[in-house]
């Protein structure tokens, strides 16, 4: 599958600023911290008054004696080795000053000083003396310093507000090399909402896409059996209902994120996220049932993988997770066997959050779908089945202890509605090949409607008040009619919801055969605007429980299966 090729047209002009430089102290009211990994790049810039930001690294004149590299909030011991620099910490008071920390001394790049005192333990390990000895100055006393990452609790009036600007991307190197002109200092006029990903024909930034592993599943979504006792002329039998989903998913994704706010006031509404994605969804849904009743598999997670995290400590974290969900719901009162293919290709998919009308989109196309349906024709009954294959990317966001998430759902679904009016003497014989089936004898009739749908939705979890739950955006939603036909006599009956909106053949044929309805196949109106997404979104957040309590043994003889539909349908046409 081709990877999407994107680049950042306009992101923060951080290249114009001094990069994260461990030899230059953060003493001038600005401090930058860079994140680099094979899969992600990011930069965080703090800016405020001269006294609001200081530096506990070697460059800032400090030697840290005791610290815990894996802890965030902690007490450290530190000693000044260069009084020309370290005193900057005390400018206007050390408390409430945000300090840069060495990588090996904290899990956090920055913390706020809440307390500083002459430590009772004045010992300095011999190995740490070198720095201040070299300077020959008077030895300062060892300080105890309490560091906190509860920035929201800091007293901002002591040093004034600090602005934090974060930008990050799955595309290594992109941010620093694609500076936007005309925006000289991030602390001034930089417009965080101008981030955009735009398509580009060159292949130079291919490496920015995270290719999700190609995954093939053969998953049993539902499997229940009931031992049915003899009832009237129905002999005892072991009834089963099995729903399987075979699927292959390939996908690739890239993203860029920006965040700009006042450090002490977490504000998720100042976050922008742009994601580009390609995906190829193939699947075959199989249902095999000789029980009646309803079933709900609930949302089954087939596969889940965490993608590289943009980790700026407690100030900002973005952790995407890729999960493939599947779900099926069915209500059956006849014996049924069915296979329906799900086939979709998504290329150049683009999500922009917060939602803005035009920027999101992509090319979403259905492929050829094989459908097969067999049912028992001499029972009157309905069957309906909805199944979903739903790859999802969840961008989990954590800002100063508040968490939220922005999700992207690619919801491919298949839906079957079957309404049968059986007759004891009736039967439906399979058509010779392709799409046709013939009703023979008298009585057996019905309608079958098979469709697939694709809904691409994005939205935010509700956790943080600032994020409106209704900020959902549907990038794409469409239902594709694969097969829709009525057969047999008596299909004009209207007592079923399922066939209410069915196409009616213009001619009432005596002894009709399915082929006479062929003309109706594609002439039915497609279900435009069918709101798959609403259902999908609702379903997603309110996790449905697996439920098979509704299954019962049939009380009438279900009879043998006959093929009703066997066809390959190109939903795109
Ligand atoms: C860090 O700053 C020093 C002094 O300005 C400079 O010589 C050095 O090249 C800088 N290093 C990086 C990696 O920018
Ligand atoms: C902040 O520090 C810079 C560089 O050290 C200095 O030029 C500037 O005057 C200082 N500003 C204030 C308000 O102290
Ligand atoms: C360092 O901090 C981590 C996380 O808070 C903690 O589990 C660990 O015990 C600490 N190590 C020491 C030596 O205190
Ligand atoms: C810490 O000790 C030094 C002398 O070593 C003293 O001058 C200073 O006032 C003390 N600071 C505090 C906060 O007690
Ligand atoms: C910090 O910014 C907030 C929001 O703009 C403002 O309400 C507050 O007064 C500012 N605090 C200081 C100390 O400037
Ligand atoms: C916050 O800092 C200001 C200025 O230093 C001070 O007047 C005020 O009392 C402090 N507030 C608290 C709650 O400590
Ligand atoms: C930022 O850019 C967006 C889109 O380009 C624009 O609508 C908005 O007015 C800009 N905001 C500022 C503060 O310039
Ligand atoms: C369904 O479950 C039964 C027993 O639990 C098992 O023997 C059978 O293989 C399962 N069928 C499928 C298709 O998973
Ligand atoms: C149903 O299955 C059970 C266990 O596999 C078996 O003992 C029983 O004979 C079966 N009943 C029928 C009617 O096939
Ligand atoms: C999934 O891929 C495997 C191997 O490429 C193939 O054999 C299988 O038919 C595919 N399944 C579907 C449902 O496309
Ligand atoms: C359907 O047609 C294909 C090719 O025309 C043939 O290979 C296949 O055997 C036929 N199937 C049936 C059930 O007749
Ligand atoms: C329909 O049911 C009757 C008896 O109820 C049975 O004889 C007949 O074989 C059934 N037809 C099919 C196709 O199973």
UniProtKB/TrEMBL annotation:
Coiled-coil regions listed in the entry: none
Residues spanning the signal sequence: 1-18
Keywords: Signal
UniProt entry tagged with the keyword Signal: yes
InterPro entries, alphabetized: DUF7223
Stretches for region Disordered: 514-544
Boundaries of every DUF7223 domain copy: 269-487
Superkingdom of this protein's organism: Eukaryota
Name of the molecule in the record: DUF7223 domain-containing protein
């Amino acid at each position: 599958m081709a990877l999407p090729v994107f680049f950042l047209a306009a992101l923060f002009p951080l290249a114009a600023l001094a990069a994260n430089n461990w030899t230059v102290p953060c003493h001038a009211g600005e401090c930058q911290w860079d994140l680099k990994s094979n899969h992600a790049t990011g930069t965080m810039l703090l800016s405020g008054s001269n006294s609001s930001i200081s530096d506990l690294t070697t460059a800032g004149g400090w030697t840290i004696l005791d610290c815990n590299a894996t802890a965030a909030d902690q007490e450290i011991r530190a000693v000044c080795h260069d009084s020309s620099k370290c005193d900057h910490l005390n400018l206007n008071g050390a408390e409430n000053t945000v300090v840069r920390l060495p990588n090996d001394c904290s899990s956090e790049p920055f913390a706020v000083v809440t307390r500083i005192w002459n430590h009772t333990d004045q010992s300095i390990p011999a190995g740490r003396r070198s720095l201040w000895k070299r300077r020959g100055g008077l030895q300062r006393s060892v300080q105890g310093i309490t560091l906190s990452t509860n920035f929201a609790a800091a007293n901002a009036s002591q040093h004034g507000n600090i602005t934090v600007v974060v930008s990050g991307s799955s595309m290594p190197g992109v941010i620093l090399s694609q500076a936007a002109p005309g925006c000289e200092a991030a602390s001034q006029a930089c417009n965080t909402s101008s981030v955009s990903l735009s398509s580009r024909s060159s292949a130079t930034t291919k490496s920015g896409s995270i290719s999700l592993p190609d995954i093939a599943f053969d998953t049993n979504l539902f499997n229940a059996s009931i031992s049915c006792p003899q009832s009237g002329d129905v002999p005892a039998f072991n009834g089963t209902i099995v729903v399987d989903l075979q699927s292959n998913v390939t996908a690739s994704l890239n993203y860029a994120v920006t965040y700009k706010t006042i450090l002490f006031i977490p504000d998720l509404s100042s976050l922008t996220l742009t994601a580009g994605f390609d995906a190829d969804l193939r699947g075959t849904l199989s249902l095999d049932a000789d029980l009646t009743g309803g079933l709900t598999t609930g949302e089954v997670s087939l596969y889940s993988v965490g993608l590289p995290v943009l980790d700026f400590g407690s100030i900002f974290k973005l952790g995407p997770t890729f999960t493939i969900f599947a779900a099926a719901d069915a209500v059956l009162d006849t014996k049924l066997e069915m296979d329906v293919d799900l086939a979709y290709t998504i290329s150049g998919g683009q999500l922009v959050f917060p939602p803005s009308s035009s920027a999101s989109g992509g090319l979403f196309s259905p492929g050829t779908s094989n459908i097969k349906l067999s049912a028992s024709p001499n029972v009157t009954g309905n069957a309906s089945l909805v199944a979903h294959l739903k790859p999802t990317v969840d961008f989990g966001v954590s800002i100063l202890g508040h968490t939220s998430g922005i999700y992207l759902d690619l919801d491919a679904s298949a839906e079957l509605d079957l309404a049968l009016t059986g007759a004891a003497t009736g039967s439906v014989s399979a058509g010779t090949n392709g799409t046709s089936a013939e009703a023979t004898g008298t009585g057996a009739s019905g309608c079958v409607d098979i469709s697939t749908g694709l809904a691409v939705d994005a939205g935010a979890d509700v956790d943080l008040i600032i994020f409106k739950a209704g900020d959902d955006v549907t990038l794409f939603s469409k239902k594709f009619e694969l097969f829709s036909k009525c057969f047999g006599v008596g299909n004009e009956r209207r007592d079923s919801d399922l066939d209410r909106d069915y196409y009616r053949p213009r001619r009432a044929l005596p002894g009709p055969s399915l082929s006479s309805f062929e003309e109706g196949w594609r002439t039915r109106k497609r279900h435009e605007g069918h709101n798959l997404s609403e259902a999908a979104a609702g379903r997603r957040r309110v996790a449905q429980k697996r439920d098979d309590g509704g299954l019962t043994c049939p009380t009438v003889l279900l009879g043998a299966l006959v093929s009703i539909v066997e066809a390959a349908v190109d939903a795109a046409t």
